[in-house]
Amino acid sequence: QVQLVESGGTSVQAGGSLRLSCAASGGTFSTYPVGWFRQAPGKEREFVAHITSNYGTAYAGSVRGRFTISRDNAKNTVSLQMNNLKPEDTAVYYCKLINTNYWGQGTQVTVSS
Fold it and tell me: Tens of pLDDT along 66-104?
């Protein structure tokens, strides 16, 4: 049974930066691709970024060039560095093991203008 715990969400002003972390336990984390998703109030959950077991990455167009996903398999963590944050980045951010139903509980990011 894999458990995912996100951290690092907080309130920040537009133009600021945050680093989110997703810590995994209870499984062979290093073999899974891992994704970050977000859900804003009243909207559907959407893809943000993912990283494969071989460190390949992909990003949503809305965050490309501002967000960077990385992983440390030795520490069973995946991070999301978010720069130049915009109010439209406000959402609950979730990590997920791709191709599984394992989600974290989410961490709130609020960006004020």
Answer: 999 999 999 999 999 999 999 999 999 999 999 999 999
Backbone CA torsion sign across 77, 78, 81, 86: negative
Q: What's the pLDDT at 30?
A: 87
The Cβ of residue 42 has, within 10 Å, a number of other Cβ atoms equal to 5
Let me know: does 20 contact 85? Beta carbons within 8 Å: no
Q: Which residue's structure tokens are 């997703």?
A: 22
Structure token pair of residue 50: 């993912």
Alpha-carbon distance of 5 to 68, in angstroms, equals: 19
Which H or E element spans position 47? strand 46-51
pLDDT value at position 80? Answer: 98
Q: Taking Cα atoms as reference points, which of 68, 65, 88, 87 lies closest to residue 79? A: 68
Quote the tokens at residue 83: 């720069």
Give the pLDDT score at 19: 98
**∠ CA(43), CA(48), CA(50), 5° rounding?**
145
